[in-house]
Amino acid sequence: MEINFVIFFSTTVKLLALMTPPVVLSAFLSASKNYDAAKKKRTAKRTCLAVLITGLILFFLGENLFNFFGFTLDAFRIGAGALLFLSAVSIMNESKHNTSFDPEDDISVVPLAIPLCMGPASIGTVMIIGASAESLRQKISGSLSIVLAAACIYAMLLYAEKVEKILGATGMTVLSKLTGLILAAIAAQVVFTGIHAFL
Fold it and tell me: In whole angstroms, what separates CA 39 from the centre of its chain?
């Protein structure tokens, strides 16, 4: 059983873009200023695990949720695409993501994993990808994409300070805007696919 690595790579990049790395990185840097190295590593690991578990559950149970609530995959595509487009607009309009956190709070699950990494748009897209995966090969490829995307988030948070130094303020802003553009393109494609299939 072979995995189509082109589709695997494109799905991984899509999922990683949906997790809005610049936003997550900014929030992590803001919240972890007073953390020691061990707590930063622990927070990054917990965030990765929360994203991974949430993503895999939604990926494999998405179709059952569709059947339970009685709506079609195409209707969900249109709704998720609309939310994704709003997320893209929000990222494009925000120059900074400053949020105040209590140093004693555990930020790994909320807000880093949910809703920053796994917000409404990314949750909807993961459910769509899972429901669209008909063969075992597609399900394995999709689940591995989620694993790799979560691992990338972990690596980014683990080396957050180094990433910030390399990119600088300008680089962070450019990366954030680029993420917004990618999300807008993904949103358009998801909506068009849903409308085309519905019609």
Answer: 23
For residue 136, give both structure tokens.
Answer: 């075992």
**DSSP label at residue 109:** I
Q: Give the model confidence (pLDDT) of 64-93 as tens digits.
A: 887 888 878 788 788 878 887 887 787 778
Look at residues 14, 4, 44 and name the one whose alpha carbon lies nearest to residue 183.
14
The angle formed by the CA atoms of residues 152, 153 and 154, to the nearest 5 degrees, is 90
127-164 tens-digit pLDDT: 989 988 988 999 999 999 999 999 999 999 999 999 98
Q: Quick one: angle between helices 120-132 and 37-69, nearest 10? A: 60
Counted residue by residue, the chain has a size of: 199
- Is position 97 within any domain? no
| Domain-embedded: residue 133 | yes
Helix axes 21-31 and 136-158, enclosed angle (nearest 10): 40
Q: Number of folded domains in the chain? A: 1
Structural domain of 21 = 5-92+105-198
Residues 6+ apart with CB under 8 A from 120: 80, 83, 87
Does residue 98 fall inside a structural domain? no
pTM of the model: 0.80
* CA 25 – CA 27 distance, rounded (Å): 5
Q: Is residue 124 part of a domain?
A: yes
